[in-house]
Design goal:
The chain has 535 residues and is α+β, with helices and mostly antiparallel strands. It has 13 helices and 28 strands. A hairpin with a 2-residue loop joins strand 19 and strand 20.
C-alpha cells in the first residue's frame, strides 16, 4: 500500500541500536516505515556499556523506559585506582534531575532485544525485513528509491520512501553511495576486550574502575545481567596472536585477581579507537545517524547514546514535516542541534583517552596524574562528568539562548500530580507533542492571538503548573510536588516555557512565537570548540 507518491514515508537502513530506536520513535508516531537489515540476529558482542538519564528520557516518551531499566544495573560510583590499592579519585553519580537513573550499566544485546520487542508493538506501520543489503539509492524530487538484495537468494527489490535514515554503522554503505567523506583519524593503540559471565562475586565487582598502571592500565567494567568486561591495551611489541586463546587471556585476567572460579570467558575482540565525522549529515532526503555520521572513542560512554539521541531529534521533526505542520527546512536543524553535542562528548572521550595513554607511556607519578585528571575533567569535587541537564544553542527555537533565559535548555522531570491526584513523572502527563507550561497560570493568558494560532496549529497543549499547596482550577492543571520544576523556571525568570517533543525549550517569556527556521546555523569553528553543552 503506497503512502502518497511513495511506498513508505521513511526507510531505515540498519537495525542496530540507532535504527531500532528510530523504528520505535517513528512507530509510536504512526509513521509508515520499512527497515532493511543485513543480519537476522542481534550482534552478539556487547559494545556500549552505559546509558544515562537523557537517553532513557527519550525512550520514556515511547513507553520503553521501564522495560529497559529491567535489563540494566544502576551505576553508583566510578574510581581511578592503582594496583596497590590506592584510590586516585572516586566519582559518585549525582542525584537524578530527570526522574530516571543518572547512569545505568547495560548488556547491549539484552537492551537491543527490548528495543526490538518495542518495535513489535507497531507491526501495522513498521515493516522489518532481515537479510536485505541496500545496493543503491536513486533520489527524485518526491522520493528516494532504495534498491536492495536478499543476501541468501540474491533476489532484488526496490521500494520508494519520502526520507531515508542511514543507520548502517561506521562502514555505512549508504554514506559511501552518497559520496560523503568520513573525516578524522584512528589511534595507534590496539585494545583487547574480554567479555565474561560472572560465576562468583569478587570484592567491589560492581564498581566501574580505571586501574592505573604505567605498564598496562586496565578498564574494568561491570555490565548488567551478570556480565563483565575488561579492556587491556596491547604494548607496541604485542599483537593479536599473543592473545588468541583463552589460556593467553587468562594470563591477563590473572593480573586482575580473577580466575576461572570467578568468571567464564564469553568472547573477546580487538579494536582501535576512531575519531571521525561525516562532512555532512544530510543529502537531500537522506540522513546519516549514529556511527554512520560520527565515531568516537568509548571513554565517555556516549557512542551508542549519541546515535539514539540523533534518532530522537530527527524523528519528531520527520513527524511534523510528514504531517504537514512544519516545512521540510525544519530538518536542516538536525545536524545544527546534534553535531555540537557529538563534538563535545567526542572531545571528552579523547581527553580521557589521553590521560590513560599519558600515564601508560610516561609512568607519571600518581599524585600528578590525580591533578591532571581533576583539571581535564574540570572537577572541583569528585563528581561524575558528562552529567546534568543538556542544552542546545542552535536550531529550532524562537530566539538566542542565554544564561538568563530558558531557551534551548531541558527542564528537570520531577514527579507531579494531576488534578485528580494521580502521580507520575512529568513527561508521562505531557504526551509526545508540544506543550506550553505556565508557572501558576494557563499559558494561553500570556499568548497573543497569532501566538495562540501558531501553537494550536502544532496541536500544542497549554498546562498550568501549580505548587502542591495550591488548589486545582482546571482538570489540566499539574502540581509540582517538590517544587523543582517551578524553581527551575523561576531561576530563569520565566512564567511560561514551550517544550518541544524532545523536551528542549523552544520558546519562553518575551519570545513565545512558534520558531522560524532555523534560528541560526552552527559554524564549524563552534562545533570544534565543543562549547555548546551545558550543565
Amino acid at each position: 500500500m503506497k503512502t502518497g507518491p511513495f511506498d513508505y514515508e521513511v526507510a531505515i537502513v540498519g537495525y542496530g541500536p540507532t535504527g531500532v530506536s528510530a523504528a520505535n520513535f517513528l512507530g509510536a508516531y504512526g509513521i509508515r516505515c520499512i527497515v532493511l537489515e543485513r543480519d537476522r540476529e542481534i550482534y552478539p558482542r556487547a559494545r556500549a556499556v552505559t546509558v544515562n538519564d537523557w537517553t532513557l528520557r527519550c525512550f520514556q516518551s515511547v513507553g520503553l523506559a521501564d522495560g529497559l531499566l529491567g535489563v540494566m544495573d544502576p551505576m553508583t560510583e566510578m574510581r581511578w585506582r592503582t594496583f596497590s590499592g590506592k584510590d586516585l579519585i572516586r566519582m559518585k553519580v549525582p542525584d537524578a534531575e530527570m526522574g530516571l537513573p543518572v547512569a545505568s550499566m547495560i548488556y547491549q544485546p539484552a537492551m537491543e532485544q527490548v528495543l526490538r520487542q518495542g518495535v513489535d508493538r507497531f507491526a501495522s506501520c513498521i515493516d522489518v525485513r532481515f537479510g536485505q543489503e541496500v545496493t543503491a539509492l536513486e533520489s527524485t524530487a518526491l522520493a528516494t528509491k532504495v534498491n536492495f538484495r536478499d543476501i541468501e537468494t540474491n533476489a532484488e527489490g526496490q521500494v520508494s520512501a519520502r526520507y531515508v535514515l542511514a543507520c548502517d554503522g561506521g562502514s555505512s554503505n549508504v554514506r559511501t553511495q552518497l559520496g560523503i567523506a568520513l573525516q578524522g583519524s584512528t589511534t595507534d593503540t590496539k585494545w583487547v576486550v574480554i567479555d565474561v559471565r560472572v560465576k562468583r562475586w569478587w570484592p567491589d565487582r560492581h564498581l566501574l574502575t580505571f586501574w592505573s598502571d604505567a605498564a598496562r592500565p586496565v578498564v574494568d567494567i561491570p555490565l548488567a545481567l551478570g556480565n563483565h568486561r575488561w579492556e587491556f591495551p596491547l604494548s607496541a611489541h604485542e599483537s593479536e596472536k599473543d592473545f588468541a586463546t583463552h589460556d593467553q587471556l587468562w594470563r591477563l585476567l590473572a593480573t586482575m585477581g580473577v580466575t576461572p572460579d570467578n568468571v567464564e570467558i564469553h568472547q573477546h575482540a580487538f579494536y582501535k579507537h576512531h575519531v571521525r565525522r561525516a562532512e555532512r549529515w544530510r543529502s537531500g532526503s537522506v540522513f546519516l545517524l549514529g556511527d554512520a555520521a560520527h565515531l568516537m572513542p568509548p571513554w565517555a560512554g556516549s557512542g551508542m547514546q549519541s546515535g539514539i539521541r540523533d534518532a530522537f531529534n530527527l524523528c519528531w521533526k520527520l513527524r511534523e514535516v510528514l504531517r504537514g505542520r512544519l516545512p521540510d527546512t525544519l530538518l536542516d536543524s538536525y545536524e545544527a542541534e546534534r553535531a555540537p553535542n557529538v563534538a563535545f562528548v567526542t572531545a571528552e572521550s579523547e581527553r580521557l583517552g589521553r590521560i590513560i595513554k599519558r600515564q601508560m607511556t610516561t609512568g607519571e607519578k600518581l599524585d600528578a596524574l590525580h591533578r591532571v585528571l581533576c583539571k581535564k575533567l574540570h572537577l572541583r569535587e569528585p563528581v561524575q562528568p558528562l552529567t546534568g541537564l543538556p542544552a542546545i544553542e542552535a536550531g529550532w527555537m524562537s530566539t538566542r539562548p542565554q544564561k538568563t533565559n530558558a531557551i534551548g535548555q531541558m527542564p528537570p522531570q520531577p514527579r507531579v500530580a494531576d488534578a485528580s491526584g494521580r502521580q507520575a513523572h512529568l513527561d508521562d502527563f505531557l504526551g509526545a507533542g508540544f506543550v506550553l507550561l505556565g508557572d501558576g497560570i494557563n499559558p494561553q493568558a500570556l499568548l497573543s492571538d497569532p501566538q495562540k494560532a501558531g501553537w494550536l496549529e502544532l496541536n500544542a497543549r497549554c498546562i498550568a503548573v501549580r505548587e502542591g499547596a495550591q488548589a486545582a482550577t482546571s482538570e489540566d492543571d499539574l502540581f509540582d510536588l517538590d517544587g523543582s520544576l517551578l524553581k527551575w523556571m523561576r531561576a530563569r525568570n520565566t512564567k511560561c516555557i514551550a517544550l518541544r517533543p524532545d523536551r528542549f525549550v523552544a520558546a519562553a517569556d518575551g519570545a513565545l512565537d512558534v520558531p522560524t527556521l532555523p534560528y541560526r546555523s552552527v559554524p564549524q569553528s563552534l562545533i570544534a570548540s565543543n562549547a555548546v553543552y551545558s550543565d
